[in-house]
Design goal:
- The complex is a heterodimer of chains A (about 575) and B (about 325).
- Chain A has about 575 residues and is an all-alpha fold.
- Chain A is about 65% helix and about 0% strand.
- The model of chain A is unreliable at about 1-10 and about 540-565 (pLDDT under 50).
- Chain B has three domains: about 15-50 and about 60-95, no CATH class; about 105-210, Cupredoxins -  blue copper proteins (Immunoglobulin-like, Sandwich), CATH 2.60.40; about 220-315, Orthogonal Bundle (Cytochrome Bc1 Complex, Chain D, domain 2).
- Chain B has helices at about 15-50, 65-95, 200-210, 220-230, 230-235, 265-275, 295-310, 315-319, and strands at about 105-110, 115, 125, 125-130, 135-140, 145-150, 155-160, 165-170, 175-180, 195-200, 255, 260-265.
- The two termini of chain B are about 50 Å apart.
- The chains are: A mainly alpha (about 575), B alpha+beta (about 325).
- The interface between A and B is large, with 93 and 84 residues.
- The structure holds copper (II) ion (2 copies).
Chain lengths: ~575, ~325
């Protein structure tokens, strides 16, 4: 499909940065003070890429340490700082902002047919908050690190730790406000800036995912800010809140923390679901199966997700009856996720499926997310959780969801919208190879962790009994494969900026409004505000299109694209 | 698994509870294999059959089919999940009420070691010796941060908190030596805060206890402390009492001055010693001083053990 529409004539004649919004200024100022949502998305992408590598290097060192049972590569304290850095950076400086701040920022106005977000300057301000938070993190790193784990459990963090807890918590606190600002911006934009005819039930699922995730962000993140403030007040000012010897309650911290951090899991996964819901219909040439159920499922997940936090605390000393309630609700919240998996699968039925890289990543997402979700049911079952919690079983579970799920979807999005964002095609063969490698590297790394976790290997151990070594060696070897799979796109995407084929406006023959403007889009997105006449995913109206008809149709679209440019 | 083995696939199962949990675990694996198998099979079948340009017929789906399917699998999933919840929760419910008359062993966690004290006062560090086939209850507290007492071979784990007792119970039925880990991250040497649990035949356990130095009755030690710290001055006073009688207190319901009742469990006894003003017994003035800072966690354990065992008839003999 992609080969047929490549615009070969203009392939190597211009710099990528001369067209569309990319050509609208080349000074540093034109980037750092831009209010164009597309440029801000690029700023975010660059920032998050840096943090992805910082978090990645930290975990690479951890995986090297774990090759042998003894504590021999780094010291115990260094080890603790490394896994903490990995957690804090990957959660708050990569996964939470990842898809919303980059693709959400870039695509939301385009998908809505509007010229920008509702508050362009607030959007820029969010990025600065993220950068300031990031600067604190870098300070922590250079000053010697923090060793509390990303969970900051009290009273360890508030009293006992001898590391840079205040600076690290401030980093998260500040970055959190960046996320809140983005959430507010998205909510207002979706409410007020939809193109004529774009009713709520004509919104693409990606927009719905941005809407639901923004609501979760706006409701949950302030709780994180409060929790960290209380923890800092105890550490810095000695206000007794969580300190048991002063009459405080250490478990209160965990309740507050997970009241944010469980919804945060959905902050990380809902956008991924949105991406996959765009990619699968496009490459299956098929309308998304059960559109309205998919929307309700997003809403249900966001809502019920607020009432399951106690499943992180089954062994914490919480009441056994509370455990039962949280266990029950955790099973209920899994239902809408299961529905989504069925619907993505059913979308393939009767399609005309092709396997470009975004589709391969989306398939990977569905498989890995299913395993991540099912092992979530294990952990929702109290007797199983008692054994598995705080072991590698949990580590494997949430990496299947966060990395197998969110990161796979991030790469699906990156490849899917790369032509739109940069105006260049990525090299398809390399991309397919990377997608497959990532899938295998991922399973290679994390599947052994389920087995050793159930066998009793606790998490956050820099040294361990030799009986677990086999699994750690496998896991570290897999991590090396995974590292290559992440570096590959980094290399060929940069390559494509200079040497990639020029992308037409709609290389995938996709239906969203973002494809109706040239690639890369002009600064103002649309010359004429589009009007919407039907629902999204208008691929096979009847569930069946004659092949010849389709090819004819796509050629016509390609021509129209050419005219536009 | 014992520490000297070099490979572990499934953890040893040293109690009936452990084997029961495994059963649930395998059940869940079965369900997961079926679901993953179904999803993968559908992805592959559709993915290949409906690949671009394939000759497979692509009939039109009537609207009602998708509705029915959608509602059908939502309801099916819901019931399946509720069933699994019940399956797992039912077995959990049976573990809430602990066995009667267990062997009570006290555990104090601190950065980075486990201090263990048997009812007869024998102490050990990072090792827990227990008799087989006897219900054991661990009553645990931390001196500093949160730790977690994890015995994989028994499929139990419980966080150990500062300022509050938590407990875990088990009846090991296979002798041997198994891992003990701290499962809650607690700072520098978290990874080394472990050891082993040794399950021994009853007679051997008794022999082991007798061979340990410092064996003296924990309750007896508590009784001595009770006199040394001046508790007896108020609580064993003859005639008019300024302080309530502690005989038979454990497990009973105490009427509080502010109204309401509270069950006198270990946590209550501990609080009564450290924060007596918080829950004042009805009919008494709040004159009891707080012993916070003057008694260690080990001493509190002894005092609590003494009060729990105290039935009053021995009162005269010591006075
Ligand atoms: Cu959760
Ligand atoms: Cu620990």
């Amino acid at each position: 499909m992609s080969d047929a529409v490549l615009d070969k004539t203009s392939a190597r004649d211009e710099s990528t940065f001369d067209k569309g919004y990319l050509g609208a200024g080349h000074t540093l100022r034109s980037w750092l003070f831009t209010t164009d949502h597309k440029r801000i998305a690029i700023l975010y992408t660059l920032t998050l890429t840096v943090f992805f590598f910082v978090g990645g290097i930290a975990i690479a060192l951890v995986r090297i340490e774990l090759v042998t049972p003894a504590q021999d590569f780094v010291s115990a304290d260094e080890y603790n700082r490394l896994f903490t850095l990995h957690g804090i950076v990957m959660v708050w400086f990569f996964l939470v902002p990842s898809i919303p701040a980059t693709f959400g920022n870039f695509l939301l106005p385009l998908m809505l047919g509007s010229r920008d977000l509702a508050f362009p300057r607030l959007n820029l301000f969010s990025w600065y908050l993220t950068v300031i938070g990031g600067a604190f993190t870098i300070y922590v790193l250079l000053a010697g690190g923090v060793d509390t784990g990303w969970t900051f459990y009290t009273p360890y963090s508030s009293i006992y730790s001898n590391s840079h807890v205040i600076a690290a918590a401030t980093a998260v606190f500040v970055a959190g406000f960046g996320t809140i600002a983005t959430g507010i911006n998205f909510i207002v934009t979706i409410h007020t800036m939809r193109a004529p005819g774009l009713t709520w039930f004509r919104l693409p699922l990606f927009v719905w995912s941005m809407y639901t995730v923004s609501i979760v962000i706006v409701l949950a993140t302030p709780v994180l800010a409060m929790t960290l403030t209380l923890m800092m007040a105890e550490r810095f000012l000695g206000v007794p809140i969580f300190n048991a010897s002063e009459g405080g309650d250490p478990l209160l911290f965990q309740h507050l923390f997970w009241f944010y951090s469980h919804p945060a899991v959905y902050i990380m996964i809902l956008p991924a679901m949105g991406v996959v819901s765009e990619v699968i219909p496009c490459f299956a040439r098929r309308r998304l199966f059960g559109y309205d159920f998919m929307v309700y499922a997003l809403a249900a997940i966001s809502l019920i997700g607020f009432f399951v936090w106690g499943h992180h605390m089954f062994v914490s000393g919480q009441s056994p009856y509370a455990n039962l309630v949280f266990s029950f609700l955790s099973f209920i919240v899994a239902v809408p996720s299961a529905i989504k998996v069925f619907n993505w699968t059913a979308t393939l039925y009767g399609g005309q499926i092709s396997y470009e890289a975004p589709m391969l990543y989306a398939f990977g997402f569905v498989g890995l997310f299913t395993i991540g979700g099912l092992t979530g049911l294990f952990l929702a079952s109290i007797p199983i959780d008692v054994q598995a919690t705080d072991t590698y079983f949990v580590v494997a579970h949430f990496h299947y969801v966060m990395v197998g799920g969110t990161v796979s979807a991030f790469f699906a999005a990156l490849h899917f919208w790369w032509p739109k964002i940069t105006g260049r095609m990525y090299p398809e063969t390399w991309a397919r190879f990377a997608a497959v490698l990532m899938f295998f590297g991922f399973n290679f790394t994390f599947f052994p962790q389920f087995i050793m976790g159930w066998a009793g290997m606790p998490r956050r151990y820099g040294s361990y009994p030799p009986e677990f070594q086999v699994y750690h060696v496998l896991s570290s070897a897999g991590a090396a494969v995974l590292a290559i799979a992440y570096l590959l796109p980094f290399a060929y995407m940069i390559w494509s900026l200079r040497w990639g084929q020029r992308a037409p406006g709609n290389p995938w023959q996709a239906t969203g409004l973002e494809w109706q403007t040239p690639s890369p889009p002009p600064k103002h997105n649309f010359d004429r505000v589009p009007t919407v006449e039907h629902g999204p995913y208008d691929y096979h109206h009847e569930g069946y299109v004659d092949q010849k008809e389709e090819i004819a149709g796509s050629m016509q679209t390609a021509q129209t694209d050419g005219d536009q440019e | 698994m014992t520490a000297d083995s070099h490979f572990v696939f499934l953890p040893a199962a040293a109690s009936a509870h452990a084997r029961h949990v495994d059963w649930i675990y395998f059940g869940l694996i079965g369900v997961s294999v079926v679901i993953v198998g179904l999803v993968v099979a559908l992805l592959l079948t559709f993915g290949i059959r409906y690949r671009s340009g394939s000759p497979a017929p692509r009939g039109k789906l009537p609207e009602w089919v998708s509705r029915e399917i959608e509602i059908g699998w939502t309801v099916a999933t819901l019931f399946a999940f509720i069933f699994i919840f019940w399956f797992a929760a039912a077995s959990f419910l049976t573990t809430i009420g602990a066995a009667s008359n267990p062997l009570e062993i006290h555990v104090v966690g601190k950065q980075w070691m486990w201090k263990i004290e048997h009812p007869n006062g024998v102490r050990e560090i990072n090792e827990l010796h227990v008799p087989a086939d006897v219900p054991v209850r661990l009553v645990m507290i931390s001196q500093d941060v949160i730790h977690s007492f994890f015995l994989p071979a028994l499929r139990i784990k419980q966080d150990v908190l500062p300022g509050r007792y938590t407990s875990e119970s088990f009846t090991a039925d296979k002798t041997g030596s198994y891992d003990l880990f701290c499962a809650e991250y607690c700072g520098s040497d978290h990874a080394r805060m472990g050891g082993r649990i040794v399950v021994m035949p009853k007679a051997e356990y008794q022999a082991w206890l007798d061979a340990q130095p410092g064996a003296e009755n924990l309750a007896g030690k508590g009784r001595q402390l009770f006199t040394q710290l001046g508790c007896a001055g108020c609580h064993f006073e003859k005639g008019h009492r300024r302080a309530p009688d502690l005989a038979g207190l454990y497990g009973s319901y105490v009427q509080l001055a502010g109204g309401g009742t509270v069950r006198a469990d270990e946590a209550y006894l501990r609080d009564s010693i450290l924060q007596p003003a918080r829950q004042v017994v009805a009919g008494y003035a709040p004159i009891m001083p707080s012993f916070k800072g003057t008694v260690s966690e080990d001493q509190i354990f002894s005092l609590v053990t003494f009060i729990k065992s105290f039935s009053g008839d021995r009162e005269e003999t010591t006075q």
